[in-house]
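Bumping with the actual sequence this time:
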Amino acid sequence: MENLFKSKLEAVERLNSFTREIAELSLKTDYDNVNSMVEKRNEYIVAVREIDEKIKKMNSINDTDEIKNIKKLINQSVQEIIEMDKQIRKNLSDEIKLVKAKLNEPASSLGQLNIKA
């Protein structure tokens, strides 16, 4: 049981590290990279869920001190991931707002163009 929790901790830490890499990228300049990394991130999430399912199947009632410590570390790491996810969503939302604002600008600059055939 303890080994499963250690495996889960390792998987969550990999997810945390990968999410941090995504959060550090610029959506404006690295959009394609961010997009592909978000797809790859789903693989990390699936790995964590698979370990979670194994833990649920074992359904141990007695948690040792070591398991309690591992669970605490897992929860801390998950909280960090949640905060990074919020920041990524906020950055994405801000970028979308900028694009919308640019698209909704009056076509005054186009009106000044003199295109001759």
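The tokens above came from a reply further down the thread. The chain is about 80% helix and 0% strand.
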